[in-house]
Structure formats: structure tokens, C-alpha cells
Design a protein that fits this description.
This protein is α/β, with parallel strands linked by helices and 257 residues long. The protein has one domain: Alpha-Beta Barrel (TIM Barrel), CATH 3.20.20.60. Helix content is 46%, strand content 12%. It is built from ten helices and ten strands. The chain has an eight-stranded parallel beta sheet, sandwiched between helices. A two-stranded antiparallel sheet has the order 5-6. Helix 5 links the parallel strand 3 and strand 4. Helix 5 packs parallel to helix 6. The N terminus is likely disordered.
């Protein structure tokens, strides 16, 4: 078992705290991409943090869905070493094609100190949403592995990020993922209050909501009792500010040919 946590809190205690947060309902879980942003967010008082695959990838010169398993595991261990709050991991499909597959990835993330991880049903190599039966099998394997290590599994239905509009299919998939053992369900891009309420009513909580334009106000989300994550919003804001500020210092004679 890892002992990365920066305080006297053990990893097992952080995992218990993370499970308690889900049982308690509403909380906001922002997404750092490096040591500095993780420490800053903890200092602001957030009770839990989560990695961002897009933010971390771009911070190391890659893109979303390009980070290797080894890079992700090292990143998780690095962040856990800096903070004393639970860390959830944006772990894409949990690298099913790597040695040991999903089960080994969960073990590695747990060893690195993660309190939770996620699994997605979008396959970037095929550029398609995974067949529902195959997705359920993957969630089931991940759920068994997460239960063994005491970490929370979030199962994600990704269709709304890729042009999907079928809320009924999303609800069906989330229900199947819950039945397969997921501790939390998540349909990023499903942002209107009525649809979120349907997920809560028909699938049950805990439910994660991605804070994007069009998402209900925080007070509404608090009343609904959902978990809120920010994805790459903070990374994009930070790097957007960096870019716009740097542009103000560009002079024609300084620009590289």
C-alpha cells in the first residue's frame, strides 16, 4: 500500500473519506494537472481532487487520450505525494490492451494512492462508442478490481461528448453500469437539469456532473446532491491566460522566422 499522503492521513483513510463524500451527496471536485495546481486547489479547501486526462496530456506536450499508462500512474503518485485529500483518476478506458488489462491498471492506480478512478465507453482507436455488452463487461471487471482495493469506480457514458443526443440510451447504459458495480455514474455533456434529475431518479446516485456552459447553477446542483467536476476547465483557463498575456509581449522583431 502506498504511503504518499502528505499528512498523517493514510491512504485507507483517504479512501474512506472519498466514499463518505459520495454518501453525503453534493461536493465539487476540481481537476489539477500538476503539483502546483493540486496544492493550490487543496489549499483553497476542496475536499477531493481529480486528474484531467486532457489537461495533463497537454501539460506534457501530448493531447487527450495520448497519455500512456505508465505516465498516468506516475502522475497519480506524484500528485498524491503532494496532497492530503482524496484523488480521483480520469483513467479513460483503463488501458484494456496493456499487460494485465483493466484489472492491472486498477491495481497500479491503487498502488499509486488513488481513491477512485473512472472508466469510459468511448474507444479512441475505433473512434466509436463501445458496444453496450462489451462496455458492461469492462465496467464489471473494473468494479471487481476497485472493490478489492477499496476505491470508488465511476462509469462514464461518453456519447454526448461525441454528438450523441439519445438520452434514453444514456440512461440505459448508466443503469447497466450501476448494476455491473459502478459506485458513481457520469454522462459528461448531459447538462440540463431535467436530464440530470432523470439520471438521479431512474439510475440513482451518486452521479457526477461536468460543469460546462449550460450546466445548472451550482446552487441547483447542490440541491440535486450531485458530484461536480470541472474537467479541463481550469487548465484551459490557466493556459488561455498564459497565451493571451504572452501575446502582449510579442514584437515583430522578436518573433522567430
Amino acid at each position: 500500500m502506498s504511503s504518499h499522503a502528505t499528512s498523517d492521513t493514510t491512504i485507507d483513510e483517504l479512501r474512506a473519506r472519498f466514499r463518505d463524500l459520495h454518501a453525503g451527496g453534493f461536493f465539487v471536485m476540481p481537476n489539477p494537472w500538476d503539483r502546483g495546481s493540486a496544492r493550490m486547489l487543496e489549499e483553497l479547501g476542496f475536499a477531493a481532487l481529480a486528474t484531467t486526462s486532457a489537461g495533463f496530456g497537454r501539460a506534457i506536450g501530448k493531447d487527450d487520450q495520448e497519455v500512456s499508462r505508465d505516465e498516468l500512474v506516475h502522475h497519480v503518485a506524484d500528485l498524491v505525494d503532494q496532497i492530503g485529500v482524496p484523488l480521483n483518476v480520469d483513467s479513460e478506458m483503463l488501458f484494456p490492451d496493456q499487460p494485465g488489462g483493466i484489472t492491472e491498471t486498477v491495481r497500479l492506480l491503487a498502488e499509486a494512492g488513488a481513491s477512485g478512478c473512472s472508466i469510459e465507453d468511448y474507444d479512441p482507436s475505433a473512434e466509436a462508442i463501445v458496444d453496450a455488452d462489451a462496455a458492461v463487461q469492462a465496467v464489471s471487471e473494473a468494479a471487481r478490481a476497485c472493490a478489492e482495493h477499496g476505491i470508488v469506480l465511476t462509469a462514464r457514458c461518453e456519447s454526448h461528448l461525441y454528438g450523441g443526443t439519445d438520452v434514453e440510451d444514456t440512461l440505459r447504459r448508466l443503469t447497466l453500469y450501476r448494476e455491473a458495480g459502478a459506485g458513481c455514474v457520469y454522462a459528461p455533456g448531459l447538462s440540463d437539469a431535467a436530464s440530470i434529475q432523470r439520471v438521479l431518479s431512474e439510475v440513482g446516485g451518486p452521479v457526477n456532473v461536468l460543469a460546462i456552459p449550460g450546466t445548472p447553477e451550482l446552487a441547483t446542483l447542490a440541491a440535486l446532491g450531485v458530484r461536480v467536476s470541472l474537467g479541463s476547465v481550469l487548465f484551459n483557463a490557466a493556459y488561455g491566460t498564459l497565451k493571451s498575456t504572452a501575446k502582449a509581449f510579442i514584437q515583430p522583431s522578436f518573433v522567430r522566422p
